[in-house]
């Protein structure tokens, strides 16, 4: 991690820093009301990407939409028009290989990439070893508590709604008023909704092992990291934003000046007061320690010295995640 931090930011984090290197913390939303409503939280990511594309700062963005053949299966691809970026707004809670989308890049491309923390780390590693990659202008990381096998999506559609997969014409995971609904629309136009907090209870049964030993919640190697702002109920449909690199800072300031996004400062406590932060930095920390004790595979980050001590777990009443 230290090596990758030096590569991405030219310095390493101070000891005990759990949010990762950053230049500023914010909350915000898309100033275009339609984009804000279409987004997962404040539509901040989608507004930023549309602005970057329309201004010619990028030629495309790796985003996650749905497969044409199987409209319930999330799929990463390079969006080359603002319409494609808009259509790919909202979180998809199923594993997708962002690196395969990069294979479709053209020689002249300058891309923004939206990816989860593990994928951001993979891209940084590939950049650091000089792998052949397209030119990446901006790496936007999403906060991530966990992702889920595609079987979770299939289970909710078939098992909970009783809809056959052949009947599905559209799926969304966070549609409607914040925090949104898991929504299925059938070919006959029948719509079925399950509130996101309830859908999450089904999704969590399909968490891959890798996510239970993952310690990076806020995409600590991204240029800009974005998540939901769960900490302040008075600010619904706001995104939570960690600006990490010089490039990230320059881009966010530019987008605010262009009137694309709203950006205001946020205290660190309101970023970390998020179930995902506690899940990873406390609960998963226990799982990682136990997995290593039993010689099960774990990522190299964090090294054991970064894990909070047992005394601190006891003080904070920390228990392993279930
Ligand atoms: C699996 C997963 C777990 C998450 N866990 C948390 C969490 O614990 N805490 C938290 O605060 N936020 C979490 N988020 C992030 C949160 O759901 C929103 O993505 C974030 O708040 C940005 O909102 P927005 O309205 O600004 O983005 P939007 O404008 O909605 O844009 C989101 C962008 O992310 C892309 N995207 C969607 N799904 C994926 C995916 N699976 N992989 C890569 N890119 C994708 C979309 O194509 C779009 O470009 C998670 C997201 C995902 C996908
Ligand atoms: S929890 Fe970690 S490993 Fe799992 S998808 Fe999120 S960032 Fe990747």
Task: Give a brief outline of the structure.
With 322 residues, the chain is an alpha/beta fold. The chain has helices at 2-9, 33-38, 44-54, 82-87, 98-102, 117-128, 150-160, 196-203, 209-212, 246-257, 268-272, 275-293, 310-316, and strands at residues 24-30, 60-66, 74-79, 110-115, 135-142, 168-175, 181-186, 191-195, 224-228, 239-243, 261-265.
Which strand order spans the largest sheet, edge to edge or round the barrel?
A: 3-2-4-5-9-10-1-11
Helix content: 25-40%
Structural class: alpha/beta
Summed over residues and divided by their number, the pLDDT gives a mean of 94
- Return the domain count: 2
The value of Rg in angstroms is 19 Å
Strand and helix order? HEHHEEHHEHEHEEEHHEEHEHHH
End-to-end Cα distance, whole Å, is: 27 Å
What's the layout of helices and strands?
Blueprint: H1 2-9, E1 24-30, H2 33-38, H3 44-54, E2 60-66, E3 74-79, H4 82-87, H5 98-102, E4 110-115, H6 117-128, E5 135-142, H7 150-160, E6 168-175, E7 181-186, E8 191-195, H8 196-203, H9 209-212, E9 224-228, E10 239-243, H10 246-257, E11 261-265, H11 268-272, H12 275-293, H13 310-316
Parallel strand pairs: 2-4, 4-5, 5-9
Antiparallel strand pairs: 1-10, 1-11, 2-3, 6-7, 7-8, 9-10
Bound molecules: flavin-adenine dinucleotide and iron/sulfur cluster (SF4).
